[in-house]
């Protein structure tokens, strides 16, 4: 079977949960499949396929907006697929061609733009996505929550969508007491800390988290810190302006994005990972926390309840007081915390990148016929 995969630099060197999701699924599939012929195709940058496929094609022009994207996918791509005698095209960036006759499998790792459309590029519009997924032979999403969202907004039949969950990477695992202590010294002034991390979009509710931490500090006279790690897109930086006058500012540590090994240390060293996001379709942070033996406190929204089950402590989405009380509860009740840790570690074993990649390979084989 000849398979062509659309890639880009953010896919081959992933920095986001969506990039990691696609990279892990596809790269592990390629490693497992010794029969199919894989070709990576890029819009002008051959480096984007390095290390994945045995062969990479750079097809110009580079995509720089909606018009060039439509031209690339609907004019340039069909000819390349035909010339390559492609059996299956993998749209690893959620996009496919509206004019190609080749079977298409689209990987749609995130649908957050349904909630915040203004933050995405012009060509990432729900109308165009709807046309592409309906044209595709099949679509893969990271959660049942994402599947329901896609069905709702595109009217795509349920049998055209397959759920393949994410998993924690190999760096995310429990660490020794000494390692935890060293991480606390390095990043939290030798104090215990709650951790929140990821790209700090508006739906991640960082302002709400700070208010919930205030509830915790008001009722618990402790030296607990709050460590927040991640990029803040410019238009959402205002949400952090409250830090300038925040009563507990000295107990909040703001860190830039970290490499995978450092991030794994921060997760494993945390007292709990707090994830107040009101919209989450991948849930990578929750999976990484559970695999690291760290409790998860989260909003009961998006894919988190689906992924964590009864291993997490939940608060209604948007409820500051409830989130703060859950932080207090996990701090005061060591038995509850230990139960959450054990349930989380057991839950994390249900998710495996290799197993999901094998399911992706089986799905591709069925689609190819």
TrEMBL record:
Transmembrane segments: none
All residue ranges annotated as the Glycosyl transferase family domain in the record: 192-347
GO molecular function, one term: glycosyltransferase activity
Keywords tagged on the record: Transferase
InterPro entries the UniProt entry points to: Glyco_trans_1
Any Pfam family the entry gives: Glycos_transf_1
Protein name: Glycosyltransferase family 1 protein
Species, as recorded: Deminuibacter soli
């Amino acid at each position: 079977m000849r398979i062509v995969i659309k890639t880009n630099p953010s896919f081959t060197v992933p920095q986001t949960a969506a990039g990691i999701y696609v990279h892990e699924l596809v790269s592990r599939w390629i490693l497992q499949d010794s029969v199919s012929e894989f070709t990576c195709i890029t819009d002008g940058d051959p480096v984007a396929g390095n290390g994945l496929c045995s062969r990479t094609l750079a097809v110009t022009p580079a995509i720089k907006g909606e018009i060039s994207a439509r031209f690339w996918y609907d004019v340039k791509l069909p000819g390349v697929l035909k010339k390559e005698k492609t059996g299956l095209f993998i749209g690893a960036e959620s996009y496919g061609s509206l004019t190609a006759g080749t079977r298409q499998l689209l990987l749609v790792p995130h649908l957050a733009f349904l909630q915040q459309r203004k933050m995405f590029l012009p060509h990432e519009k729900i109308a165009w996505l709807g046309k592409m997924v309906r044209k595709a032979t099949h679509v893969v999403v990271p959660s049942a929550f994402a599947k329901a969202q896609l069905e709702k907004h595109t009217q795509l039949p349920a049998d055209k969508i397959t759920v393949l969950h994410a998993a924690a990477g190999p760096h995310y695992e429990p660490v020794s007491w000494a390692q935890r202590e060293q991480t606390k010294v390095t990043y939290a002034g030798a104090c215990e800390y709650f951790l929140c991390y990821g790209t700090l979009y508006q739906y991640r509710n960082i302002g709400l988290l700070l208010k919930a931490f205030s509830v915790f500090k008001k009722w618990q006279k402790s030296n607990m810190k709050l460590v927040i790690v991640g990029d803040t897109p410019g238009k959402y930086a205002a949400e952090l302006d409250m830090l300038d006058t925040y009563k507990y500012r000295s107990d909040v540590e703001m860190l830039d994005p970290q490499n995978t090994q450092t991030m794994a240390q921060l997760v494993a060293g945390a007292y709990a990972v707090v994830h107040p996001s009101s919209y989450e379709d991948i849930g990578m942070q929750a999976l990484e926390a559970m695999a690291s033996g760290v409790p998860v406190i989260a909003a009961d929204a998006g894919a988190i309840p689906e992924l964590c089950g009864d291993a997490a402590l939940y608060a209604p989405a948007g409820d500051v007081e409830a989130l703060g009380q859950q932080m207090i509860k996990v701090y005061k009740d060591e038995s509850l915390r230990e139960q959450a840790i054990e349930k989380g570690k057991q839950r994390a074993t249900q998710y495996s990148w290799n197993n999901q990649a094998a399911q992706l390979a089986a799905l591709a084989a069925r689609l190819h016929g």
